[in-house]
User: Fold DNA protection during starvation protein from Rosistilla ulvae.
Amino acid sequence: MATTTEPIDVSPQLSRVETEVRQSEDLIDIPIGLPREDREKTVYQLNQLLADSIMLKDMYKKHHWQVAGPTFYQIHLLLDRHYGEQVEIVDTVAERIQVLGGAARGMPADVAEKSQIAHPPRGREALTDQLTRLLQAHETICTYCRFIAKAIGERGDLGTEDMVVGDVLRVNEFQAWFIAEHLAPVPLENS
Assistant:
């Protein structure tokens, strides 16, 4: 006797993508020994840092693509290296937001709305303008890191304070130094 079997549906089971599990401002309780109110303040500050870091990261890639001039090769490689380091910063900050029970806001619309760093023009710029723009962005981030590190430390969140200083501030200071040296008034050749 032949048995008939119904075909098995192996189609992916898609969910309704408009369903939001929680609002981005809602914190979940993570038992890490920090009061909810303190974590909320820190998450807000870190989302600002995240938006600024994403803007800087994207500026590095844009300038990497569009750099031109006699030092093209060196600057092209430097900007790509800095871009990669900024990618790591973005991931570190976003993950710390999650550790605190928050939701990292890093979509392009979030960055455009929240970043304190001015958007670069869409077109190509002179190298000195590109480097100046990067230095200004680094200064914005470094200044903000110092401000929030102090506030976060006063709230007793040593893990986040350490991340802001060690993983974000120090890298941005180092990158700013490298960029600033390319704007130093030193002749390329001895006259």
The first helix runs from residue 36 to 66. The chain has five helices and no strands. The mean pLDDT is 91. The domain at 36-181 is CATH 1.20.1260.10 (Ferritin).
